[in-house]
Design brief:
Helices cover 37% and strands 11% of the residues. It contains 16 helices and 11 strands. Strands 1, 2, 3, 4, 5, 8 and 9 form a 7-stranded antiparallel sheet that branches. Strands 6-7 form a two-stranded antiparallel ribbon. Helix 4 runs antiparallel to helix 10, helix 7 crosses helix 12 and helix 15 packs antiparallel against helix 16. The longest helix is centred in the C-terminal third of the chain and has 23 residues.
């Protein structure tokens, strides 16, 4: 059972190594599909505990600065042009999507974390990118605009990573897309802001961690719908974590986990899978309890793996390590939007999510953090242990219709198969350590972080046939096939 108060009563398989290269962008495989043909108009069916949901327009939002006022935040969800867009919640379009990526800054010569986020952020401003300071002085965050199409998101991620890499280079540092620093000892310097000082005072050594995640934001019509979408997403969080695991080596040692970041992050009192909530009021009551108890200082410290925006009609999925490459970040975003779209369709039919026990879900997340893609995971529906690639097949089968509606099914199938064949970030780090040194691991991570397309690249190539090996796991729905769909939105920062 959840430890949070009841709602107020007012109604109530091993990865193999291959040398073939991925197409320059995952979007090359996913295609440039901005269309969505819903099976029925959103809001046409009644839904228990949920206001009628409507699909969000794929072109309805723009980038917003973190410090924007509420009025500006609200304006960001309105269409720029009625001719080619409609407000979030309009029928007939897939949700919009946006992504935040956190990065580690390391000395370009030694590879150890460097306390240089203020200098890198200043260099970023000169280059035209707004890099946010994170809790540790050796971290920064880059965010995309809100995007309508996967092609737009891919270009945006290429641009933000390119500029972040360039800003770091101007400051004598290298950018690492890794969940935790490879080399230690870790610096113990909190970014000097009033809020971060309060966090350091209130939470002690917890605030000294250096961890980097990837947060995917998806437009939803309202908070009650967002809560029900969160319930539908809960069982799939461990699979998303296994897919993106990218922090096996921390402070000079192999931790034995594919995602050591997840283990560190779970120490915070508000972290982990969200409880199963009955409504937005139930969600808000849980947040109020944490505030009253002092386990969070403000709503931005709600660190659940799925959380609601306090200002915008969005839901934020934050289970993942920062992926090693742009290609993997795009894939993550595609799968997340497909999950949200699938949940919205289920809610339109009046189907609420099946509750999954908190203990089982935490165990599944722990297993995903330990094994990543190279071992086993927990199927929370069947409550048994199966190979991690099989869990990905189940996920793809679950979102197949959403992906087919946007024309993205075949591309995502190929992209997932590529990661299974070549390995995610955790696999690449361990491979570099097995054949070299810790310095080689840092070099590998930095090189893969910077291996991105030129900003504004509009090259769309056909998927590499080698990206879908014959021995890739099959979808339980249809043998040999996989499913796809995309959308997300940028929210305010947390740490």
């Amino acid at each position: 059972m959840s430890a949070f108060p009841a709602e107020p009563l007012s109604g109530a398989c091993p990865v193999t190594s291959t040398a073939s290269a991925l197409p320059k962008t995952f979007a090359a495989a996913l295609g440039d599909h901005g269309r969505h043909v819903p099976t029925a108009a959103r809001g046409a069916s009644s839904r228990a505990l949920v206001t009628p949901a409507r699909a969000c327009n794929a072109e309805s939002m723009e980038v917003i600065p973190r410090q924007a006022e509420s009025q500006t935040l609200r304006a960001a969800v309105l269409p720029a042009s009625p001719a080619d867009s409609a407000p979030c919640g309009a029928s007939g379009a897939p949700p919009t999507i946006g992504v935040e990526e956190e990065f580690i800054l390391v000395d370009s010569h030694t590879g150890v974390p460097l306390l240089s986020n203020a200098a890198v952020a200043a260099a970023g401003t000169a280059l035209g990118i707004d890099l946010q300071l994170e809790l540790s002085q050796c971290q920064i965050e880059a965010a995309t605009p809100v995007c309508a199409r996967i092609s737009d998101l891919d270009r945006a991620l290429c641009r933000t990573r390119s500029l972040a890499v360039a800003a770091a280079a101007r400051s004598g540092t290298r950018l690492l897309a890794a969940g935790v620093p490879v080399l230690g000892p870790l610096p113990r310097a909190i970014t000097d802001t009033p809020r971060y000082r309060r966090m350091a005072d209130g939470f002690g050594a917890l605030a000294e961690q250096v961890i980097c995640g990837c947060h995917v934001h998806v437009c939803v019509p309202d908070r009650d719908t967002a809560v029900q979408v969160s319930n539908h997403l809960r069982p799939w969080l461990p699979t998303l974590l296994a897919l993106t695991a990218n922090s096996p080596i921390a402070a000079n040692v192999d931790t034995g986990y594919a995602s050591w970041r997840h283990i560190l992050w779970a120490r915070w009192p508000s972290a982990g899978p969200p409880p199963y909530f009955r409504s937005a009021r139930h969600y808000d009551a849980a947040v109020a309890t944490m505030l009253d108890c002092g386990s969070i200082l403000d709503p931005a410290m709600v660190y659940w793996d799925v959380r609601l925006s306090a200002h915008l009609p969005t839901i934020e999925i934050r289970i993942s390590d920062v992926p090693a490459t742009v290609h993997e970040t795009v894939l993550l975003a595609v799968l997340v939007r497909a999950l949200v779209t699938t949940a919205l369709s289920a809610l339109d039919r009046g189907d609420l999510a099946r509750p999954v026990g908190d203990d089982l879900l935490r165990a599944a997340c722990w297993r995903a953090a330990r094994d990543g893609l190279t071992g086993h995971g927990i199927d929370t529906a069947a409550q048994n242990v199966i190979p991690a690639p099989r869990l990905l097949a189940l996920l793809l089968a679950h979102v197949r219709t959403a992906l087919e509606d946007t024309g993205d099914y075949a591309g995502t199938r190929a992209a997932v198969a590529w990661v299974l064949a070549h390995g995610n970030g955790a696999v690449h780090q361990r491979r570099a350590l097995r054949t070299g040194t810790l310095a080689d691991v840092v070099r590998t991570v930095a090189d893969r972080t910077a291996d991105i397309c030129p900003p504004g690249d509009a090259h769309w190539a056909a998927p590499d046939p080698a990206s879908h090996p014959a021995d890739a796991p099959e979808s339980p729905a249809r043998a040999g096939e996989w499913p796809v769909s995309p959308s997300t939105r940028r929210l305010s920062g947390d740490r």
